[in-house]
Amino acid sequence: MTTLSLTARVPARRYLLGAILAAWVLGHALLAGRDTLALGGAELTPLHEGANQAWDTVDDNRNSNPFFLYFFNYVRLILDESVRFVQALISQPSFGRPVPVLGWLGVVALAAAVTYIFGNIRVALLTVAGFVSFGLLGLWAESMDTLALTLTAVAYSLAVGIPLGIWAGLSGRFNRFVTPVLDFMQTMPTFVYLAPLTLFFLIGPASATIATMIYAIPPAIRITAHAIREVSPVTLEASASLGATAAQSLRQVRLPLARRTIVVGVNQTIMAALSMATIAALIDAPGLGKTVLKALQTLDIGAAFNAGLAIVIMAVVLDRATTAASRRVETRRRTGREISAFFRRVEVGGALGIAAVLGYLSYTYVWAAEFPAGADLGSYVRRAADAASLWVQDSLSGFTDALKNVITYGLLNPFESLLAGSPWWLVFAVGVSIAALVGGLRAAITAAVGLAALIGLGLWQDSMVTLASTLVATILVLALGVATGVWIGRSDRADAVLRPVLDAGQTMPAFVYLVPILGLFGPTRFTAIIAAVVFAAPVAIKLVAEGIRGVPPATVEAARSAGSSSWQLIGKVRLPMARASVALAANQGLIYVLSMVVVGGLVGAGALGYDVVAGFSQHQLRGKGLAAGLAIVVLGIVLDRVTRAAQVRTVRLGVIKED
Amino acid sequence: MKDQPVLDVRGLWKVFGPKPERAVGSTLSRQELKERTGCVAAVRDVSFAVRPGEVFVVMGLSGSGKSTLVRCLTRLIEPTAGEILFDGADIRKADERHLRELRRHRLAMVFQHFGLLPHRCVLDNVAYGLEIRGSGRAERYKRAREVLELVGLTGFENSYPDQLSGGMQQRVGLARALAVDPDLLLFDEPFSALDPLIRREMQNEVIRLHREVGKTMVFITHDLSEALKLGDRILIMRDGALVQMGTPDEVVGAPADDYVRDFVSDVPRSHVLTLRWVMRDALPEEPLDGPELDPDLVIRDAVRVVLSADRPVRVVRDGELLGVVTSAEILEMIAR
Ligand SMILES: Nc1ncnc2c1ncn2[C@@H]1O[C@H](COP(=O)(O)OP(=O)(O)O)[C@@H](O)[C@H]1O
Ligand SMILES: [Mg+2]
After folding, report:
1. CA B285 to centroid of ligand 2, rounded, Å
2. What tens digit of pLDDT does each residue of A476-492 get?
3. Where are the domains of chain A?
4. Residue A350, CB-side half-sphere exposure with 13 Å CA sphere
5. What does pTM read for this prediction?
6. A252 and B117 in contact by Cβ < 8 A?
7. Nearest CA residue ID for atom 21, ligand 1
8. B101 and A253 in contact by Cβ < 8 A?
9. What is the ipTM of this complex?
10. pLDDT at position A3 over 60
11. What class, spelled out in words, does domain B271-335 have in CATH?
12. A494 lies within 8 A of chain B by CB
């Protein structure tokens, strides 16, 4: 899209681009299959073997090297023990008892009390319903494992993120330092740091917690910093003029005024943590993610759906509860003071009292400790999902096959063949020239260095295959984003209906998207592409819609009064004016799609995604998996830089044009 | 007592930009300075003294440096050069702790956009200054209630700022400043954000408070009528520099330059000028047994007496004849 709007403005550029593509197609026709640097699934390069050996060396010295003895091992110990402790409280046999300290009744009561105290009665009821449904689905222990991991990671993330966020909010210097670090943490495809983490912290809860923290800390820091910085300077000045110290201003002005926004940050942190905690199943994190993963690997749609449903329910409960908490911050101060303080104490005391009684029951009696096995709806859900999947595959196969074939033969295969089937030097030259053309010199240098790195990692062809599906998925995301975004941007009704769906889509852990899509299309690379599209579409749609909404009504009115048709309005006024948002949507779409590459590897996408996944499970492929993870990061950096440079240029050209 | 000023400002400069000290003392215009050095001289070489109990008004168009000036007085903005003597001691030399003590006990400020704490009720807002200096709960609430009564907000203790109108919010701001019982009150365009009716009401409120509590005040405004109404003396600023300082009738009667003349051209002069400004020496043959008036009487209030007298009105202070006024002078003054 960026290149489109760009080339439309500069004809010379368009012809050059066309010439490059034509040369590529011609070269491909003449030289296909030569110099493709193919590497079979189990083949290794010396680099990969070297990485394997290095890994083995680390394993051998884990208990003698001072870095490990005095740092990594301690961190691992603390994190492992933290997770185990929470597990002992709510999910696993503990302290010599066959059951956790708090049985299901106690957990439900405590969760309800907490959501009631910080939220309201409605979310408390929702919480009870949600938690009971975990038991009914037959996934009580798994759900509590996921909750334990999520809550531990959230606690650590907030303990690190909020102070750092406050610091970044107070100090412009520190803020300038952390921002690029956070940018990097957030653009890095989510799954690639799992493997290196296990190198340092072994497989298990510690690595899972750290992976989750890497993913969940950035929003905590960013939003806290933003909240602190946004506090009205007038109010701060008034406080200073009365002689408040910096600490007093922070405690009595900044923090109270920032509280509501910080709670929004807590919400984002929790949702990010839940998402990552399920994905950390790849490195053996306990919980629902593992159930989904196992089911995906054995293509057991029913079981995957059942566990996916539990994840969705947990996401909804956590999201609603924290949202209600942030509203409460707002409403609480409205209520009168003295009277409500008394009622409040009664309320809190009552809720905690009931929770304590039920908790005691669940500590003492088996019926309140173990969720009654008789009330199992899980098997029904599993069977129903299986049946539905079968039915859909049977009766919709005409449609799904058509879709699959159009995209596979129309887009995916040609792209893949062009990228992975041409000689590497041809693709290299084409890639660098396109980057130069759309993004300028620096983009070209980034592209050259990145592509060279892919060759060095020994994964050129796999990278090209992954790049092909990434590009196809991004094109689909953008098409969907523009079509839906324009619709939402123009119609309030569409906005009201679709926005909650998009919001919900964004809070769902990436994992659960796979399940229904797998049910529809079976395990192929096409499934992986659709999962990535579904994952990335909400953010692209929202960005485009925002851009369309940002077009001044006066401009639209003027164009309409000049007699433009609706299509002309969209094509000639709204989209060109929303150019910057569309370019941003392309960039973000790419990043999101790329972060699904590894997940795609679970359901039939080959190439880099498969290499990473195989690295998790097969000892001799660890080095290669590491290299594949790096290759994904390299692809991400190159695509991000080039689209960003193109975006800057698009906007600049647009400005010149409008002058 | 009258002679020892509460606040004595000497040669104050505030320059924003890189290497601000270099610009101090420059005689370039603000524009030229900006072009040559990239610095903005927001306040340039301003000196004035505020007497005890006085309402001292600083007036100027927007951008003339008033807000910067008043913030320099409590070092919310750090001045670049000059002295600020408060009760004889230089505020600029105060260390951080001493400065904080000054702000907590002796100076208080009222802001254009109120700067209230939205998460605290009115009572807690007013008590805030006392709270941060460590007063106990009972003591600060007692004081806050007193001040709220003084500004006419009794009954609104438990309201929150966004439940109040703009005028009432500014009363809270005023109460917060009064609560710490400061020696000097600073106002930065406190009523500019209010609509005209409320503004007039608040001006009267300030006049009443000044009469009741007798605080020394430095009052910033861009509104000439407000300046004339409240000020015992007025300092007029332009592009950061002082152009004129004097009593309201001096400013209106003898503008220092075209800038000030332009400013005051719309003012009904008879409402501001006193008899002093129109009286003349008695002619030898004039009868000197007409009515007697004070030289500081505003002309508007003397019109009736002068026009209805059949002989010249004598302007007398302490039994001494300063001059005479007849209908001719009054009519000429009004006609101009
Ligand atoms: N922090 C600052 N940095 C740079 N320039 C400033 C800053 N604050 C004020 N100025 C400049 O100083 C001049 C005086 O501003 P100000 O004191 O706010 O004027 P006033 O209150 O009379 O409207 C203006 O030209 C303004 O742009
Ligand atoms: Mg101002």
Report:
1. 55
2. 999 999 999 888 888 88
3. 1-64+410-659
4. 7
5. 0.81
6. yes
7. B67
8. no
9. 0.85
10. no
11. alpha beta
12. no
